[in-house]
Specification:
- The chain is globular and about 40 Å long.
- The longest helix is centred in the C-terminal third of the chain and has 25 residues.
- By secondary structure, it is mainly α.
- The protein contains 10 helices and no strands.
- The termini are far apart.
Length: 218
């Protein structure tokens, strides 16, 4: 029944979506991080390790969006662990919200997605919301993909930094797949997608994006 309570939290839905990108990608390349589990939570150790700002963070534009939008974001993230009446209805409402985002709001979401010190749920939700209407939010998604990774050196095994590095790459793969879905639907020209993928600074992510685009072009 469409409107029956399904007992499914939006947060679980987002983690399933992100895990799909994560584990599907694990079959496509040799990246060590692809064979590990994506951990969608920030421990106190992670917060301590990330007390210093990272180069991947875009300039703070917190004051460019309304208090109402920031309150809506905070409430939405808090509701990730709560049941929803209808998964389809919730997705449709979020899709409508995504298509109505202003430039400032989409840039704000990109900022959150790139902040290594931000809660994992906030980062996942930001990328997910932008991707629901990827063409409308193309500039913000491109900003996420074109930003350098926070960790340029390979983090120590089993360290908080390694966990966050895996999260960071998984979020970018999620953004890549959202653009590819728009390309498949005919909403995004191939040349525009390719131009953005060429600007991805991480060699492995760039190769992944361009190879996926080539696969879909055959």
């Amino acid at each position: 029944m469409k409107n029956a309570k399904v007992g499914l939290a939006i947060g679980i839905l987002l983690l399933i979506v992100l895990s799909f990108y994560f584990f599907a990608a694990s079959k496509k390349g040799p990246d060590a991080f692809l064979r590990k589990t994506f951990v969608a939570s920030s421990s106190q150790a992670e917060k301590t390790a990330l007390s210093e700002p990272h180069t991947s963070e875009v300039p703070d534009n917190e004051n460019s969006v309304s208090p109402e939008f920031k309150a809506w974001m905070e409430t939405s993230v808090e509701n990730l662990n709560r049941s929803v009446e209808s998964q389809e209805q919730t997705e449709e409402l979020l899709k409508t919200k995504s298509g109505a985002l202003s430039v400032q709001e989409s840039q704000y979401l990109a900022t959150i997605a790139l902040q290594s010190s931000a809660p994992a749920n906030s980062r996942i939700f930001s990328v997910y919301l932008l991707g629901l209407e990827a063409v409308h939010n193309f500039s913000a998604i491109s900003a996420v993909l074109e930003a350098p990774l926070s960790f340029q050196e390979k983090p120590a095994t089993h360290s908080p930094e390694e966990t966050l590095a895996m999260q960071e790459k998984s979020l970018r793969r999620m953004a890549i797949e959202e653009l590819l879905k728009s390309y498949q639907k005919g909403d995004l020209p191939r040349e525009k997608a390719a131009a953005t993928f060429e600007k991805i600074p991480d060699a492995q992510l760039k190769k992944y994006a361009l190879n996926r685009l080539a696969e879909l072009t055959k």
